[in-house]
Amino acid sequence: MNKSIILLSGGLDSATILYYAKSRGFKPYGLIFDYGQRHRKEILQAKKIAQYVGCDFKIVKMSLPWQGSSLLNKKQRLPRHDVIDPKEIPSTYVPARNIIFLSYAASFAEAINARAIFIGANAIDYSGYPDCRPGFFKAYQDVLKKGLKTGVQGKMIKIYTPLLRKTKAQIIRQGKKLGVPYHLTWSCYQGEKEPCGKCDSCVLRAKGFEEAKIIDAKSL
């Protein structure tokens, strides 16, 4: 069975790609990041999802002491928009986050002889992050081709972004068919006991479930 690295955050997108990878015959290895995010509950939920599906996982703990994001600085107010404009980059953007995460994933993949990295990035219903756009992943794929031993030897590690051009509703419908345990996922940036329902991530989640005409177990 082909090995794959899954960037597992505990959110609904990453849970969906975990199940997607399994449905395509990949043996998934979860990579969970503890990078000082204020919504640390997502780490716990990511572990629960991995354990639920029987997926091996590793937790990478790191520090970004320069912060630069409202997800890292608790003194900074989280943005709240009724309508999210993807042309604007919100304060929740973490500088170079996906560049860092994909670098760890590539190292992990090369070390265990995996040929695939799955990331649940989305460029349709999203917050406008530059590292969630098609051009970024195309460029980073070229980085792996030129910067890895496997790349120069012609044994390419491929980055898969199966959700990149899907709406949240389409993602949720697909995940429902795959049996994704959305009741275990966490989206809220606040990271409190219950979702705030007002941050951008909560708004996008609610919009997705509403358009998909599926009840979100989180709201029960």
Describe the structure.
By secondary structure, the chain is an alpha/beta fold. It has a single domain, classed as Rossmann fold, CATH 3.40.50.620. The chain contains 7 helices and 5 strands, in the order βαβαβαβααβαα. A 5-stranded parallel sheet has the order 3-2-1-4-5, sandwiched between helices. α1 links the parallel β1 (2-7) and β2. α1 packs across α6 (168-178) and α6 (168-178) crosses α7 (200-212). It is globular and about 50 Å long. The relative contact order is 0.19. The model has no long low-confidence stretch (mean pLDDT 92).
**Mean of all residue-level pLDDT scores:** 92
* Large-scale geometry: globular
CATH topology: Rossmann fold
Q: Strand fraction band?
A: 5-15%
Task: Please count the helical segments.
Answer: 7
Taking the alpha carbons of the first and last residues, their distance comes to: 38 Å
The whole-angstrom Rg is 17 Å
User: What fraction, in percent, of the residue positions are helical?
Assistant: 25-40%
Q: Low-confidence spans: pLDDT under 50, at least 5 residues?
A: none
- In CATH terms, what is the architecture? 3-Layer(aba) Sandwich
CATH class wording: Alpha Beta
Topology at a glance:
Blueprint: E1 2-7, H1 12-23, E2 26-34, H2 41-53, E3 56-61, H3 97-112, E4 116-118, H4 134-147, H5 149-152, E5 158-160, H6 168-178, H7 200-212
Parallel strand pairs: 1-2, 1-4, 2-3, 4-5
